[in-house]
Amino acid sequence: QVQLVESGGGLVQPGGFLRLSCAASRNLFSIYEMGWYRQPPGKQRELVATVTNGGRTKYADSVKGRFAISRSNGERKLYLQMNSLKPEDTAVYYCYADSDGGSWGQGTQVTVSS
User: Fold this and answer.
1) Residue 100 binned pLDDT confidence (cut-offs 50, 70, 90)
2) Phi and psi, residue 64, nearest 5°
């Protein structure tokens, strides 16, 4: 099973930006879909964005136009560029790979607050 490790979370002011990274234990060429999910405090985990091997992307309505997902198969990395952050983006962000029944990272905390 592929191992995933997220990084790049932290505390940022409203309107700021962060770039999350997810490092995988092996190359991503054989993994069809990867994505970012998040779990806000007291709420269920929700989809943020996904990207296929062919580069097709999908975004939650709440992040369209502000977030951008990308992947580098050879570098074994998944990214999430988050701009114009809002307090409601505060959550633990998880990396996901559609491999071996589904693999998850341990999560990285993003807090948007002044």
Assistant:
1) confident
2) -60, 135
